[in-house]
Amino acid sequence: MLHLLSIVSPIFIVLALGKILSFFNLIKTDFINASNRLIFFVLLPALLFYKIAQAEIYTSFNLTIFLVMCVTVFSIFLLSFIVGRIFHVGKKQLGTFAMNNFRANYAYMGLPVSYYAFGDEGLMIASLLMAFIVPLVNLLSIISLSLNSSKKVRMWTFIKNTLLNPLAIGCILGIIFSLAKIEFYYFIDKTLSLLTGVTLPLALLCIGATMKREMIRGNKLLIANTLLIKLLVMPFTAFLIISTFSETISLTGQVLIIMLSSPAATVNYVLASSMDGDPDVASGGIILSTVFSLFTYIFWLAVLV
């Protein structure tokens, strides 16, 4: 147990540090906003590109695990709407509830946990999985919010959010470099290593700094269901499928389960606000799932490692 705690605790210590620095005004709103833009448009795409470009896709890519990932995400997408109908959830809340359940903080939380739990190879596999999961969850997020919104989604908005966002571009370029077996010059490799090294710590600091108690609001029943579905049911679904067809779970399968057990994505709040969803349900689910993920990450690592 102490070993597992030592894997996860650095991530949550940095999260707590972000909160402390924010409390003493050493991290301010302007810094957080600028850092989030830097992370989203430069640092994280560069990290994904760098790690995927270094991967041997022909040996690292596992079609079975990819299919498990797609089936799991789509199953949680459907389950969320079924649960929402059972509890007679309002239209504005339903799409946000569903999005919180399948769209996780794969980048800011999943990548660090994968790295600390499984090393550089784990980070590489997690980056490769993100290349395929990002467009999928973007697509389903837009569908979830559009089904229950009075606002129509334009085709350009659809394309921009699914295929042309910086994370998707970084992933696509990484896949191209990997398939073409393009090697970086020494100085480029060291530059990318130096640049991307700041990505995960800075992302964690920003998440911690933005977590506020007053953001825990919205439908408590929906938030409780999000904690259950996002942190336990979703990774268990993948675990069950993999265990059914294989006696052992490969490293790629282990990384997938950890990625799927990540808390709700912070971007869900932005999407819910801009696409006629329920920002309160989004923020409550994000904050509480992030806090409780400390315990569920340890649980899933205990099961897998």
From TrEMBL:
Transmembrane segments: 6-27, 34-53, 65-88, 100-118, 124-147, 167-188, 194-211, 223-245, 251-272, 284-303
Membrane topology: Multi-pass membrane protein
Cellular compartments annotated: Cell membrane
The keyword Ribonucleoprotein appears for this protein: no
Signal peptide: none
Biological process according to GO: transmembrane transport
Keyword Metal-binding annotated: no
Pfam family, one: Mem_trans
GO CC annotations, alphabetized: plasma membrane
Protein name: AEC family transporter
